[in-house]
Amino acid sequence: WPLLAETTKDVAYYADDVQVSGDREYVNERCKLDVYRPDGLPEGAPTVVWFHGGGLSGGNRHIPGEFVDQKFLVVPVNYRLFPRAKCAEAIEDAAAAVAWTMKNIEKFGGDPKKVTVSGHSAGGYLTAMVGMNPQYLARHGLKNTDLAALYPISGQMTVHFQVVAERKTGEKGGANNPLEINEFAPLFHTTTPISPIHLLVGDPKLEWPARVEENALLAAMLRRTKENKVEYHSYPD
C-alpha cells in the first residue's frame, strides 16, 4: 500500500449475527474489505468501492495504481469465488460490501452520498448487477439509486459466463458460452431507475468476445429512459 495513506484492513462486512447462505467459514475467510484514505483528504470526500476481476472464480482485492493518492477513498473488496461458493453468492457479497460502505464510510471521512461503485471484468459485472437490480441493496434497507454513480469496466452485461457454466456443467466456464439474458444479466434490468452509469470498454478488436457490443447495447437501451444518465466509451488500442 502507498506510504502516505491511512489504510484500515481486513474489515468483515457481514456482522457475526447476520444469516448468510453457504459455508460460514468461507464467509469469514473471504468476505472482507479494506478502506484506503489518502493523506490529507478532506472530510466528506467521495469513495470508490472497487471489485477485482477474475471470472468470478479467482482474484483478490487490490487498489488500481491509477487510484492511488487521488481525491477519494478506495474500498477494495474480496467476495466469495466459484466453485467454493455459488455465483449468486458473489453478487450478494458485492451488495453487502457496498451497503457496509454506504453505512460506515462517514466514520472514515467519506460522504455516504458520494459512494460510487466500479470494477473490472467480473468486477464490472458485479458493479452493474448491484447497481441495476434494486433487490440486492434493498435487502440492506438501501436503494440502488442512493449510489452516486456506477463505473463498470469491461463488464459482461449478459449473464456472466461463469453463471451459465455453473448451471449447465457445474464447472468453470469460458467466455465463449452462449450469451443469455435473464435476471442474472444487467441487460435484463434496463427499465429500472439507476444512478448515473459510465460504461468503459476497450477496443473491439482486443476485448473479450462481444464485450464491447454488450456494453453498447446496454447504453442504447438505458438511453431510451430519459431518467437515466448514461455515458459509454470504447477506447482504441
Describe the structure concisely.
About 25% of the residues lie in helices and about 20% in strands.
Question: Quaternary arrangement of the chains shown?
Answer: single chain
The end-to-end distance, rounded to whole angstroms, is 29 Å
Report the helical percentage: 25-40%
- Total strands: the figure is 8
- Secondary structure class reads alpha/beta
Strand content: 15-25%
Uncertain parts: none
Largest sheet: 8 strands, mixed
Strand order of the largest sheet: 1-2-4-3-5-6-7-8
- The SSE order reads EHEEEHEHHEHEHE
Annotate the secondary structure layout.
Elements: E1 5-12, H1 24-30, E2 32-38, E3 45-51, E4 73-77, H2 87-104, E5 110-120, H3 122-132, H4 135-138, E6 149-153, H5 161-168, E7 197-201, H6 211-222, E8 230-234
Parallel strand pairs: 3-4, 3-5, 5-6, 6-7, 7-8
Antiparallel strand pairs: 1-2, 2-4
